[in-house]
Amino acid sequence: MSAREEVLARVRAALGGADPSPVHVDRAYRARRAVPEGADAVALFAERVADYRASVTRCAAADLERTVAHAVGDARRVLVPEGLGLEVPGALEDTGLDAAALDAVDVVVTRAALGIAETGTIVLTHGPGQGRRAITLVPDHHVCVLEEHQVVPGVVDAVAALDPARPQTWVSGPSATSDIELDRVEGVHGPRRLHVLLVAT
Amino acid sequence: MRVAVMATCLGDALFPEVPRATVRLLRRLGVEVEVPPEQTCCGQPMVNTGYLEEAVPLVRRTVEAFAGVDAVVVPSGSCAGSVRHQHRLVAQRAGDGALQEAVADLAPRTYELSELLVDVLGVTDVGASFPHRVTYHPTCHSLRMLGVGDRPWRLLSAVAGIDLVALPQAGECCGFGGTFAVKNAEVSVAMGADKARHVRETGAEVLVAGDASCLMHVGGLLSRQRAGVRTMHLAEVLATTADDAAGVV
Amino acid sequence: MGRTFVGMPPFPVAAQAALADTTLRRNLAHATATIRAKRAGVVAEVEDWEDLRVQAAAVKDATLDHLGEHLLTLEASLTARGVRVHWARDAAEACRLVGDIALGHGLEEVVKVKSMTTAEIGLNEALAERGVAAWETDLAELIVQLGEDLPSHILVPAIHRGRAEIREIFRARMAAAGRPAPADLSDEPAELAAAARLHLREKFLRARMAVSGANFAVAESGTLVVVESEGNGRMCLTLPEVLVSVVGIEKVVPTWEDLDLFLRLLPRSSTGERMNPYTSTWSGVTPGDGPQEVHVVLLDNGRTRALAEREGRQVLRCIRCSACLNVCPVYERVGGHAYGSVYPGPIGAILNPLLHGVGSDPATDALPYASTLCGACAQVCPVGIDIPGLLVRERVAVVDAHRRDPRPKAEALAMRAGAWGLGDARRMGLAERASGLVGRLPLGRRMPGGRRGLSWLPFPGSRWTGARDLPAPPRESFRQWWSRTGRDEGHRP
To answer: Any idea where the Cysteine-rich domain is (chain B) (predicted)?
Structure first.
């Protein structure tokens, strides 16, 4: 018997022949608001991103390119994905740099698929404007542009909106560890600096 | 109202002052008390050590001894928990339908002392007087298996003259754990030592709890440490009145 | 590398040794208190937390009830997304599969995402035997690996180490494994983390194959999920050409939408954060992005054994958050090594017996007894596993497995004698009369309150009196009092 057949046979044997009484899952939790009544989801999002010691800058649409330029600062090697739709002075568009080349990049500027107010999370689905997974991982500084209308209240809303067929990266603050005495330290292997630019819409 | 007292084997044999105080307290509150003579042990020590088969005759004896009474009061969170939550397991093991019915019948009639007082008798001020500095340890099975919540604390708060002080990290286990106390004696003592330290930090004269077993463990440590703190069961404090308060500690 | 839990003494002996280590106790007390407070804070933010726990338990139970169907769906979805799916009956088979893939590519090293499942099967040791070095990339796993140590916690395997010890491990051991630690390394956590970043970066950049586990595997979409903090997981899941994920068959959830429970429950229970820094999800191969050769090994290794237990089955709900360890007063005092398994603490005390069975290994048989049954674990478990209830059931299983032993344990004899003595009110009364006679002797000394206390008893009583006084028996039992006077006492004027 192959391992596959044997494991499946063991599963069947373990569960026995009898059909179990159905277990009911009550999905009422999906209708509950993740953001309290009257609270501003965008403000909560900004606050909770900042709680992770990430930077948050809110700006008007008209000021976005200036804000991006300011966030990038005097970094020498700036990378952007295809389809960013923003003018970033001196930026190089990703053409499939290898890991070593990415390691030499100072800052990467991308967009994101959505933001989650409940947890201060940005979610990347790595399509146009966001780039393949490696470009927001290897460089040490990630500037992420998010429009206010992209902020959803809770994890429930985010899961409902996202397509699992796409690879996803959920980012909640900069890379961090609590492995030494459970003392939180920002910055291990992922970007040590995360800067979220929240654009009014 | 008629209430049967489950003395528990530990209360009967080693801490008779606990069921005695329970009897005295209930009578003072106008309850007609009975003590079924055939009772022995609820079987918890066996069940919690894995000896389910050995517990069968004890569970049978318990349900027979308490058959037909309106309510059973147990001055022990863990024994009340055993009757309410573990007897089912034992009866299943026995494969005896009548026993399964009998344990299902006894469980909802069984109350831990503070539950009986607050929920059934509807009293929080039982007319006790205890002018001493007291701290209270909520035992695990009262707190987490039965969910007695703040009932014991409310009962103690209403005692005349009491100086009730909160115990730091009160909800943490004292380390007794039945046979754990001897199977893993070192860990048990390490946990108990931390509990005893917190008790001493309160400056209390008396440590009160709702389980004689936990008190035997922490009290045994406090005694060895010559801490000068005595242990008393909740029933003993609640049974004490102004007339006899003077000579207690 | 190469230390294993095999041959370690049973819990009571190992725990005694751990208790004597004051550094360990200080590290553990500090760490568990910190994480308990963090968890409590973020759990309190979620108003419907209790309901989420109930629903998550229901999703897991419903999935287990139809596990075979969900596994077939998962296999089909993964295959459709370009994944090569393998099945493994046990640890050895899973290790062989992973080793074959590495050697098939001519590789001498792989990078690893922290994974309980690969620790469970002893993958690193198995790969080393075939000449493949497996580099752990999670900071705590790195500390354990460099220190030739054993993991002691599910989430933070190096929780037993303090910062000064970690600095010494890095200074002494990093050079042999790759880039050495900076000469002036201090014991500041930020500096230690930076040293790990530099040390591991060269490994990430050159790695051609990674091995991971998965927190969840979505049947319907063929999606794997890895929840992490440092970004080492993302490095492993993104940069190499080949990715192999070893996934326990209980990790399957039916639909993508089911994650809306688990991604809320897991981070708050585990690291005490609203959300962990990074969660990666992938559904097979994405052209031009990440590994282009993706394998999944579906692992049994005792899970179907646990599945066969009607009550014990619920242990397979476990999402490895480690909240039960952090609140366990026993774990806090002895740490993880004493449990002799990669799964320590309350969950380990039921998971190991349920995965491997009881009755043959004294160390496994001791685990269900490594608890006071205080119930703190059950209160925090995000998937509502009745850990104290299962501890009792596993104790019963241990006792039953030994019922036919040619020489019964002293404990078994004592329990039978106790059950006999307590089995009848008359017998109990006689025993109490005898102990009452002892109580009349002027033994011991007065305890506060007036009772006499014994400070010394012969073995096995010495297990009690080694550190605790024991009240001497009363002169009169409650039973005697009641029949002498109690029946009438309150009725006197």
So the answer is: 3-83, 134-218
